[in-house]
Specification:
CATH class of one domain: Alpha Beta
Number of helices: 16
Largest sheet: 9 strands, mixed
Helix content: 25-40%
CATH superfamily of one domain: Class I glutamine amidotransferase (GATase) domain
Strand order of the largest sheet: 9-8-10-11-19-18-17-14-15
Strand content: 15-25%
Bound molecules: glutamine
């Protein structure tokens, strides 16, 4: 998956590499998802073909119905085993050829479990024609007509719209789409953040509709915590400017979870975050002076050597000027490289990802990874344990000594440089107990400088920020205050 086409690759606890939508589901529901929550056409067809080869179908003709649709249903049942309510999103647009077997499977599913145990929610777009000054309902009518052709009648219509939906249009949507008017739900573009959406949908009574539709006990939810999240987002008590230095900085979705997690760190501190996006390639020959004014610098993950020297320059600026620094994955690796080069004076120190012949491979592949030819095979993926060392920024942030964090990388901190690096002041604040891999480094003599080999951004939530993001924002606030 290329960040240019798909946005970030989101990683789950079990190491599944998924679409970034799964990130939204984890952030909004606080559920821990697994590879069973991500279904692709490729997986389905692969499994059907394997079963056919094994003879599971007893030589019968293999067809989309029932073999492919059965495979889809089986997986939906499996994903729903331990949960009260399963949300199944069929991606794409109604009418896509790829989506057809999935929709057919849903029709059968409904027949099997009974209408009272399922709810069909259809999300549609109401385009706004500026010239005519009106919202159009035709696309919604057409997609609902298409759905009914397949045998699916939506129970609820969620209408994405730029403008409020006038009463007449609600009536029209109700009539043509065959849903009660109360089930035409408006989802108007929000002002500042998607975290406003649950409150907006509640005002439209979506919660009551769902509870009724699924025959669940109707208890009023307590939205106090969520209201507070939105209040802090919209009217924060203070603000900081954080520079994010990356390669895909012009792409909205490439660092989605990183931006979200910064926002969460802000919410935890009642602080607004202004992200200054810095293209690392513009820093190759040194960092412009204005960046000294940043309250914090973050370098996210990445692959390949483009822009790496610029990231190293950004680390140097943060380290030398005492600007809070947070390095994620590659951001940790460049921090180690910078320290080796400029503090330990190991000339040309590098990662073997960028220079295979470097004299000082402070970041390197591990012995057992060498010789693996299929690149993806040697990646460390998913959640691993990390022991946090006492008396560090990380220990203070986490408030516990053992954590589990998600990984997606090939290269590691090279332990043969550990003694030198630690001696010179780059302490090891976290290590994987099983394999003695360095997971967190910190510059001891610095207000807040933390590099992590993992991706904390995959576990942060709006109402429960990842501790390291919260602590980073706090450090940025402290710096801003000290500057005044
Ligand atoms: N390219 C580095 C590695 O493979 C870092 C990966 C990342 O930042 N996710 O180790």
């Amino acid at each position: 998956m290329s960040p240019f086409q798909h946005g970030e690759v989101y990683v789950l606890n079990d190491g599944a590499e998924t679409d970034l939508d799964l990130g939204h589901y984890e952030r909004f529901t606080s559920c821990d998802l697994s590879r069973f929550n991500n279904l692709t056409s490729g997986q389905i067809y692969e499994s059907v073909i394997q079963k056919e080869r094994r003879g599971d179908y007893l030589g019968k003709t293999v067809q989309v119905i029932p073999h492919v649709t059965n495979e889809i249903k089986e997986r939906i049942y499996a994903a729903g085993e331990d949960v009260d309510i399963l949300i199944t999103e069929i991606g794409g647009t109604i009418g896509d050829i790829e989506g057809l077997p999935f929709l057919e499977a849903m029709r059968q599913f409904s027949l099997e479990i009974g209408q009272e145990n399922r709810l069909f929610v259809h999300v549609t777009l109401l385009p706004y024609l500026k010239a005519a000054g009106e919202l159009k309902s035709k696309p919604s009518q057409m997609s609902v007509a298409k759905l009914r052709e397949i045998g699916i009648q939506p129970d609820i219509l969620i209408c994405r719209t730029e403008e409020a939906i006038p009463g007449e249009l609600r009536q029209k949507l109700s009539l043509f789409c065959n849903v009660p008017q109360a089930a035409v739900v408006e989802e108007q573009d929000v002002e500042s953040s998607i975290y406003e959406l649950p409150l907006m949908l509640q005002r439209e009574n979506l919660d009551t509709l769902v509870v009724k539709g699924l025959h669940l006990p109707d208890e009023r939810p307590n939205m106090g915590e969520w209201q507070d999240v939105v209040r802090r987002l919209k009217y924060p008590a203070s603000r900081v400017r954080i520079g994010v230095v990356g390669k895909y900085i012009e792409l909205q979705d490439a660092y989605k979870s990183v931006y979200e997690s910064l926002t969460h760190g802000g919410i935890a501190n009642d602080c607004g975050i202004e992200v200054v996006r810095v293209d690392s390639e513009t820093l190759q020959d040194g960092v412009p002076e204005e960046y000294q004014d940043l309250d914090g610098i973050l370098v996210p993950g990445g692959f390949g050597d483009r822009g790496v020297e610029g990231k190293i320059e950004a680390v140097r600026l943060a380290r030398e000027y005492g600007i809070p620094y947070f390095g994620l994955c590659l951001g940790m690796q460049v921090a180690v490289i910078e320290f080796a080069r400029n503090v330990l004076k190991l000339e040309g120190a590098n990662s073997t990802e960028f220079d295979v012949r470097t004299e000082h491979p402070v970041i390197d592949l591990m012995e057992e990874q060498r010789g693996m030819t299929i690149k993806g095979a040697s990646m460390r993926l998913g959640a691993y344990e990390c022991e946090v060392a006492e008396g560090t920024h990380s220990a203070k942030a986490y408030g516990k000594s053992l954590v589990r964090e998600r990984h997606r990388h090939r290269f590691e901190y090279n332990n043969s440089y550990r003694d030198q690096l630690v001696e010179a002041g780059l302490r090891v604040a976290g290590r994987n107990p099983e394999r003695d891999l360095v997971e967190i480094v910190e510059v001891a003599d610095h207000p807040w400088f933390v590099g992590v080999q993992f991706h904390p951004e995959f576990q942060s939530k709006p109402n429960s920020a990842h501790p390291l993001f919260a602590s980073f924002v706090q450090a940025a606030m402290a710096r801003k205050k000290a500057k005044k």
